[in-house]
Amino acid sequence: MSLSLVGIIFVQAYYINNSLKNEEEQFTFNVKKALSYTSKSIEDREFKEYALKIQDLLDQGVKPDTTAFRDFYLKEEVKGSNERLIYRNSILEENYKLSSSIFDIGLDSINIKKVLSDRETKILKGNALESNSNLNLDAMMFEFGKLSKGAEIFYDTAYEDLSYRVPIHKRVTKDEIDKLLQSKLGEDNIDIDFQFAIYSSDLATKIQSEDFELITESTFSVPIFQNKNNESNYRLLVNFPKRNTFVQSSIIKMTLLSIIFTSIIIIAYTSALMQLLKQRKISEIKTDFINNMTHEFKTPIATINLALDAIRNPSVIDDKEKVLRYLRMIKEENKRMHAQVENVLRISKLERNELNISKERVALNDLIEDAITHVELLVEDRNGKININLSKDDTSVLANETHFTNVIVNVLDNAIKYTPESRAPIIDITTENVGTNIILKIKDQGGGMGKAAQKRVFEKFYREHTGDRHDVKGHGLGLAYVKQIVEDHQGHISVESEKDKGSTFIIKLPLIS
Q1: What does pLDDT average to over the chain?
Q2: Which residues are bridge partners to 37 per DSSP?
Q3: Labelling 276: which of 98, 142, 338, 465 has CA 20 to 30 A away?
């Protein structure tokens, strides 16, 4: 699944990257097409103006100085049919010398070549030729070659010389370029801001839009005002400040949808994987819990059975002192099992929000002193000591007296249990008012715990791995209960610990005035 997911992401990235490249190429193609169109339109407009000016001069009756006439004929007899094809192309060249004052370029006169051209194809049937046997085919072709009145002025040296001498700012305007580019780009839905300029041999001219900046790698250009050899000193340039944004916007929806759907797959997959790992971990924890619970219930059950067997012994049943002793043992073991069952039930009720926790104003110092009375016999039994250093300030908090006393008792009980048998349990309890909160610290000198255990010590059923040893009784429920009760009181609990150097549990609660 992981490999498939990675593969999907790479495939999507590949197609998105390809789409982006295609959009870039399409954008470049459309821009160059618009530039070529603009360049051609400006050249055609200039030539049309030039031709009209020349035609005006010719219409004034200027006579040609010289003429050159050329006729080209092609005659072919079509095999298999009684037909002849005659193709004719006639060209008449006339040279004029005209005054150039109209062009305002400082010359007295210019030479213009006017070309008259006519083309025609005729098909002659054999019977037509036979009926006119006296017709000279060559004469007929000559008559056939008379020119029509078509006229055309070619790009010639005169036009090139004239246009070359005219400054670029007199040949084209910024408005003309802007309108042509906008019109052509708009046809391809390119509606973003652009900047343009005309450069002459890599030097800027007066024809350029405001804030034009030549950026070699992102500026498009085409030649403008080319001669017959397709050469030009001028180039029309354009760049788009928001080009990347425009190109990316065309695939942004596809990219976003791809990211969204891929994210959903990743989240679903990660969630499923986490649930799988969590369920496996819970399964392991439950197995450990059952093993620990079985071990802890086995001992009191065995003790109770032995006590009952002893009481049934005729030699014991009449000994009142021994019977009472065995009964006390049965009661203590039964009480111990009941306490474990209550822990499980309390955690279950907390998770289902069924545990009724009513709160009232109480002094935290009073709860601490009450909790100490529950464990002081256990401490004394191991020759230990509890040192207290309680705040002299007001320690009033909003709390449930029973449950919060249980919280402190649970922490103290852990401090006693996890102190090695070879040491006497020494516990330090301190409270300190800090701003609007009160800090309770319970420090022991027990075995401590590693970093991994500190992160998970408040998890339900969690106990630090000790192999097959069961020297410390418990099910990993006490601190889970403590954490939930503290958080229900808008408090926070944390632990600081070092292996073989003891642990310090820190509880922070909000004070009430």
Answers
A1: 78
A2: none
A3: 465
